[in-house]
Amino acid sequence: MEILEKYPKIGLQVAKAATESSDTDARWQSAVLLGRIRSQPAIELLKRFTDDEEEYVRRRARMALEGGE
Question: I want to staple 28 with a disulfide (CB 3.0 to 4.6 A). Which of 37, 53, 60, 63 is the partner?
Answer without folding.
Answer: 60
